[in-house]
């Protein structure tokens, strides 16, 4: 997926649900939230996205530790969908 498609999805969908299912070409689906850190604009320009998976979400909300996130390349995304709570 390209940067514009990802941003459009995030702007319209994550305001309501927060969590997103990220479907990939060559790996299993990841559920988590996209976070905006200090390097957000730089990463976005390169189509990289910082995501905190659902298993680390509670700890990230408490601490805000960016080390709990992982970087994913947007070019590997096939589809984004809202995660059900």
Main β-sheet, in a few words?
A: 5 strands, antiparallel
Overall tally of structural domains:
1
Assembly type of the chains comes to single chain
What fraction of residues sit in β-strands? 25-35%
Q: What is the molecular shape?
A: globular
Q: How would you describe what is shown here?
A:
Helices cover 28% and strands 31% of the residues. The radius of gyration is 12 Å and the shape is globular. The protein is built from three helices and five strands, in the order αββαβαββ. The model has no long low-confidence stretch (mean pLDDT 91). Strands 4-3-2-1-5 form a five-stranded antiparallel sheet. It has a single domain, classed as SH3 type barrels.
Question: Which SSEs are present, and which pair or pack?
Answer:
Layout: H1 3-13, E1 20-24, E2 30-34, H2 40-45, E3 48-53, H3 57-63, E4 70-73, E5 77-82
Antiparallel strand pairs: 1-2, 1-5, 2-3, 3-4
Care to give the gist of this entry?
This protein has 85 residues and is an alpha+beta fold.
List keywords for this structure.
85 residues, 3 helices, alpha+beta, SH3 type barrels
């Amino acid at each position: 997926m390209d940067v514009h498609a990802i941003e459009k999805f995030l702007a319209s969908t994550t305001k309501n649900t927060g969590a997103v299912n990220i479907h990939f070409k060559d790996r299993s689906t990841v559920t988590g939230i996209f976070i905006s850190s200090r390097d957000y604009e730089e990463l976005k320009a390169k189509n990289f996205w910082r995501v905190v998976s659902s298993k680390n979400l509670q700890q990230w909300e408490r601490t805000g530790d960016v080390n709990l996130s992982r970087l994913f390349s947007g070019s590997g995304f096939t589809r984004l969908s809202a995660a059900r709570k």
